[in-house]
Known about the structure:
mainly beta; 1 helix; 10% helix
Amino acid sequence: MRKLLILIPAVLMFATCKKDNKPIDVTGSWSLYSWDDNSLIPLHVNANQYPCMEGNVLTFNKDQTYTIKYIGTDTCFVAPHSASFPPTGTWIGMPGQAEVTGTWSQNGNTVTWGGSQGVISTSNGKTFITLHTPITYSGVTYDIKTVEVKQ
């Protein structure tokens, strides 16, 4: 009888600790949170430093289409720029920038769009997609890591 009393709470504990393996729903809008680039001109910026980065919006629609557009009203400079016209400098988003469209798919917590593949994760109550894009210059491959946060 004593073994049974110990076994019942143990079974109940394991039964209630079932992990939910459902993939995270990616439909909706996401904004650019960070950009880490280790190429010839390294760039390590985030939306806390440059809030205008959040104007870069990626939207996954339920019909498996997506759009990427910049909704900011000013150019999002993330490195020093000149006052010349047109301005020069490093920017991530410019008014009038062409909208990108296409189709997307999801397999578990991996989402693929426009030839890119990102991994979905959660942290501190927020949902993120982390994307690594290899870029090759003069035979050397560099990694550009971007993180999108669900709005």
